[in-house]
Structure formats: structure tokens, C-alpha cells
Design goal:
Elements lengths: L1 H4 L6 E4 L8 H9 L6 E6 L4 H9 L2 E7 L5 E7 L20 H5 L3 H15 L8 H14 L3 H13 L4 H15 L1 H8 L3 H14 L4 H12 L18
Parallel strand pairs: 1-2
Antiparallel strand pairs: 2-4, 3-4
């Protein structure tokens, strides 16, 4: 890192503090155009922790400094050319874009939220593997009636190798723990159950995991009002 810190004044600076939407897809697309030995600096009102792994997937190193008035400047230096697993999100689908909603309330709140997210999801050596942690989060969300969150966790867990057999048992447990009435009226008609059935139907027809995941992202990603989390995204301009 010492080898390139002195070069950051030459990096393109992108200020996303006033952005209200999901800047990640556009930023990753710009990052793909950066040559080895060059870089980008991102200015945000909270530390952009979820961005670190997405940029690392593309071959970037980084360091971050906290500036005046609580702003963060994250500088990324490209040391290798790599292709990210997911075009719009880098290393894992459905990044925690809801964090940008918190900065619309208060920058300090957004900073606290992203660090709490990192404490739960960003450990280098977690005691519980990520797929299992996502399934636990999914189950908790179903129990609390948060089907939006549960659907997002299902998509992420599928990207990490979740099998149809595991989903079959998981949904059987929902019927057992929540009861037939709750399953019939709340889970069966939900986007969560529809996403599960999409996977099961497509795998039954021989589709590969990458094609299935692309379909899941298309139908149950940020552009679906039942699963997207950016405030105001689906509201008409007033």
C-alpha cells in the first residue's frame, strides 16, 4: 500500500454523498475500466465497507481516511485485472443498499449502521459459515414477517451453493413452525416462495446455477418493489 499512497492525488474522485440510489453498479462498471497501476477515490458520508470486498473482487487494494465533517475518502488502487462474480454487486448479490436510506436521516446513524452490518456479516473468520448464517437470518425474517428480507437472503444463500433439497426441508420447517394457516396465507403467495419455486422448476429442467441466479436477480432483485430496499425508488416524482 505504501507503494501507491503517494499517487492518490492523481486518482479520479467520485463523490456519492448526495446520491439517493444505488451507486454500486455504475461504480463497478467504471472500476472495470481502470488500468493496473491506476485508481479511484470515493467520497461518502459513511465508511463504504460493503464496497471493499466488491472492489477487491476486481483486483483493487484500498485504504480509507476520515476527513472533515465526518466524510470518508476511500481510495482504491488496481493491482490486478480480475472479473467479478456478479456484474452489479461484485462478490455477492444484493449488497446491503438499504444503508443509503439511513444517511438520508443522519450521517452518524448511517456510519453506525454500516459498522454494525460489518460486525455481523464481515468477519474474516466467522464461527458460522456465511450460507448457514444467511439461512438463520432468512428463518428469523420469516418468523418476524419480513418476507422482503427473507427473499433477499434466499437469493444470496443460493449464490453460495444452497441446494433444492435444503430449501425443501427449510420450507417444510416453515410449515411446521408457523402453522398451516400462516404458510398457506402468508408464505405460499409470497415472493420468497415464488423464488424457491423458480429455482426448483429451473433446476428440474436442467438449467445451470448461473442462469438460475441471473433469473433470480432479474425477478427478485432491486428492481422488484417487493424485494428492493432503496427509499423512493418506486415512488412517482412529486
Amino acid at each position: 500500500m505504501k507503494e501507491w499512497k503517494d499517487q492518490v492525488d492523481q486518482f479520479e474522485v467520485i463523490d456519492v454523498r448526495k446520491g439517493k440510489g444505488n451507486f454500486l453498479p455504475g461504480l463497478l462498471n467504471k472500476a472495470r475500466q481502470v488500468e493496473i497501476g491506476q485508481g479511484l477515490c470515493i467520497i461518502q458520508s459513511f465508511e463504504p465497507i460493503p464496497l471493499y470486498s466488491a472492489m477487491a473482487e476486481l483486483g483493487f487494494d484500498h485504504f480509507t481516511q476520515k476527513g472533515p465533517e465526518g466524510e470518508y475518502r476511500a481510495c482504491f488502487y488496481r493491482k490486478a485485472i480480475k472479473e467479478s462474480t456478479y456484474e452489479k454487486t461484485g462478490d455477492l448479490p444484493l449488497k446491503p443498499t438499504a444503508i443509503v436510506n439511513y444517511k438520508r436521516i443522519d450521517n452518524t446513524l448511517a456510519d453506525i449502521t454500516v459498522n454494525f452490518w460489518d460486525h455481523i456479516w464481515g468477519k474474516d473468520v466467522p464461527a458460522i459459515d456465511l450460507k448457514t448464517k444467511l439461512l438463520l437470518s432468512l428463518s428469523n425474517a420469516v418468523g418476524a414477517g419480513r418476507i422482503r428480507q427473507a427473499t433477499r437472503e434466499l437469493v444470496k444463500a443460493y449464490s453460495l451453493g444452497l441446494t433444492v433439497a435444503e430449501m425443501d426441508e427449510l420450507f417444510s420447517l416453515f410449515a411446521w413452525n408457523g402453522g398451516i394457516g400462516t404458510f398457506s396465507s402468508e408464505i405460499g403467495p409470497s415472493p420468497l416462495f415464488a423464488a424457491y419455486q423458480m429455482v426448483k422448476d429451473m433446476e428440474g429442467k436442467g438449467a445451470d446455477r448461473e442462469d438460475i441466479l441471473n433469473k433470480l436477480m432479474e425477478h427478485y432483485g432491486e428492481n422488484n418493489p417487493a424485494t428492493g430496499v432503496i427509499a423512493g425508488k418506486f415512488q412517482k416524482e412529486v
